[in-house]
Amino acid sequence: MIYYMRKRLFEDLFNKMLIIFKKSAILRVFIISAGFFFSSIHCNSNTLGEVHKAVDVKFRLGNEVLLEKAGEFKDKRIGVLTNQTGILPDGTHIIDALVNRGVNIVKIFSPEHGIRGDENYSEIDEKTGIHIVSLYNGKVKPSKDDLADIDIIIYDIQDVGARFYTYTSTLYYAIEAAAESNKQIWVCDRPMITDPGYTGGFMLEPGNESFVGKIPAPQAYGMTCGELATYLNSEVFGSSANLDVIKMDGYTRNTDYNTLKLTWVKPSPSMFYSSTAVCYLANCLLEGTNVSEGRGTEKPFEYFGAPWVNSQQIADELNSYNFEGVKFEPLIFTPSEKISAYPPKFFNQQCNGVYLNVTDKNKFRPVKCSVAILIALYKNCPEFKFNKDNFIDKLAGTDKLRKMILAGNTVDEIEAAWLAGLTGFNNVRSEYLLYK
Fold this sequence. Notes:
Shape: globular
Strand order of the largest sheet: 3-2-1-4-5-6
CATH superfamily of the largest domain: Uncharacterised protein PF07075, DUF1343
Structural class: alpha/beta
CATH architecture of the largest domain: 3-Layer(aba) Sandwich
CATH class of the largest domain: Alpha Beta
CATH topology of the largest domain: Rossmann fold
Largest sheet: 6 strands, parallel
Helix content: 25-40%
Number of domains: 2
Number of strands: 9
Low-confidence stretches: 1-55
Mean pLDDT: 88
Number of helices: 13
């Protein structure tokens, strides 16, 4: 505003002087000098404007950036790997947006929970009539036959920054399939819901690979899906895939997901809120135990407990750690099948539990918190057990966590056990971060 007032003042002054004193030599010298001054201001304001523009670039999702260039790939045969989260800020699904722009989508690939998040694995998308190939329930990777009539795979899925979230495995297999079939793969980048700077947990160790643990990364890997794709393509597949990441505009590592005001669509049936995703990094490990991880309640993964848990005792012990960014509050809940995608543990039974009240997600350390929760339950609840199939090892990526808890190791000792692997990962990870 000051700049424009200043500019208008000089323009008016120049015009009057030019009209009244047009022939004055002295004034001409003054005008020339003032002109240089004004030019200097104008140049400086342009520079400031560029800086301001760089700071205030409007946020755009990767799929928004992609759609601007839709005319450039209209003649290509497209396969879209997406689900219900593949939407624009106005709620339009990426498939519909591409079809409306005349893009030739010949096939849709659906991950776990289907493309609408309703566990519907039909072979035809009812809205568009496009053929769907499910990448879940037996088949996890597109085959060469699936990709024979495709030029480009477009990936657009919101994840939650957790290794055991199956969409990371789906991304892994999509990149691998693209490399094997010599197809292009474009990943539309999306913001992180959890703290983008946080990493934690054990690295995935050989022998513990599964669909909930495929990517060679720690439990919390601190990368957007585009950054993860770049990391996987280079570190796992030797850059053999023809990968392009469609970066977001106006996004930094300091961007808080909640400030973007994006329409929340559950990435999976029990991921009710963005706060669920933050606690998922901690309490998903309880899926490998006989303790409820809160499924069937209004806040899955934010609540945990069992009928035989002493809520106050567990909450007090966890609060004694003085973890930053979280408070542990005792509560009672009853899991209901009505609000769960699967039959929940302790269906219709009253559970004594604890609420993870995350007060600052950028200070919250969910993986260390998850270890403290497991230790507190093991130490104070005789009924607590790890599942017989040791599914906890698949989730943790190692058997070290389970064995150290059973051996009576402390939270700090267990954290120390993963630090060497985590430090090595962080050093490599830094090479693939696309946003400052």
